[in-house]
Amino acid sequence: MLEELNEKEYCNKKKIFSLKKKYKETYMNYRKWKYLFSLKAWIFKYTYRNLEKIIQRKNKLFLEEEGEKYNELLSNINGRSLDKEQRIAVLQEEDSSLIIAGAGSGKTLTMLGKIVYLLKVKQVEASKILCISFTNAITEDFRLSLEKVIDEKIDCMTFHKLGISIFHHNGFDLEIADETLLKSILLKLVEETDMTFFFKTDKRKKEQFLNLVCTFIHLFKSGGYEKEQFSSFIEEAKQNKNRFLRKKELLFLNFTYKVYTKYEEMLDRENKIDFDDMIKEATALLLNGGTYKKYDYILIDEYQDTSYIRYLLIKALKELGNSKVIAVGDDWQAIYKFTGCTLDHFLNFGDLFPYSSIFKIQTTYRNPQELITVAGNFVMKNKKQIHKDLHSKKRIEKPIKLFFYKQKKDFILFLEQIISKNESHTYYILGRNNHDIEFLRSYDVFVIQKNQTLFLYGS
What we know:
two-stranded parallel sheet; 53% helix; globular
């Protein structure tokens, strides 16, 4: 065992488990009385008992030496130098790793650095690396960033593209259902059903209800639930002691069950599949003898936005190629809960991926320390969030200004003053909902300031 520990390489948790298992019998044997005064047995027992701490020190030394050895490479990733935490994330070789990168901490730079290190130092073939992200925009941005630092082609795709690729690789053609299909079925059933309990002639309430049903069905499917689960939900709703809420929940669940059933029947009739089913079926295909490219490394961007069915697809792909998984994200930036994404897969990463480690990148280069402190204290009101000690060299005395107004015209005057003082700036205005934003669009302030770029966001 000592000879194996002397090897100059990163020793990950999977290797530790393997060593423990391999030398367990030897350890048990050396505990016998006849080896009580054996120096060799004593050294071995001490090493075995303290294996994790010994390897932790060994890895720390390896990372320092590796960082110095390839300092020139790590100091010029697309013209930028990796900081200490970024370098550790790049150089580590855990079987599975979660890299928690705060906003503005150089997440993309770290991923680029990891790929460059794998290609140029570890001599990993470009075809053996897969990068997955949540949206087409993020995937395309990362692909363009890659082209600036490497000549080789890396597979970069969304989960949807990955699922389709798995089907095509196994000789299956599939037709994706139009996203409006569910809404059209829902509207038809609304016309046929008495919905006065939820809305009468109020168009706004009707639209909210329609969105709620669509979101529920999407969450239901992306959570990996089957049709039978509706019965459990209904039985649970029946236990609600509040009579009004019980009635409301039961009416909603029974109606949504009808929509879901009609939707699934329509998909079967037209021999189509939606995106959620496509990911589920692609996973099932891999688990039941299907083939696909085997990757040595799977990098997942924006991992905080991963749903249960996407996690299962990653796991199946990892098992297929015995791949190392590198998930990068930030639980403070999870924004896609309405599509079935859940922080459970982020917060419980160690349970879902055995032999894994968590690394944090906590230096941010985007925002000043004062703003980070305010935002961090607010986010951590939710005790389930992972604690991060974000820090920045940037400073600004008053990053937040509060302006109270009684009439909307006062707010418009306030905006005019700010814009006139900083004409070269770009402004983002966030509203609680679209209604809050719409009234701004008609005011002259957005016509007069022709040199300004104003981005208005509602819900």
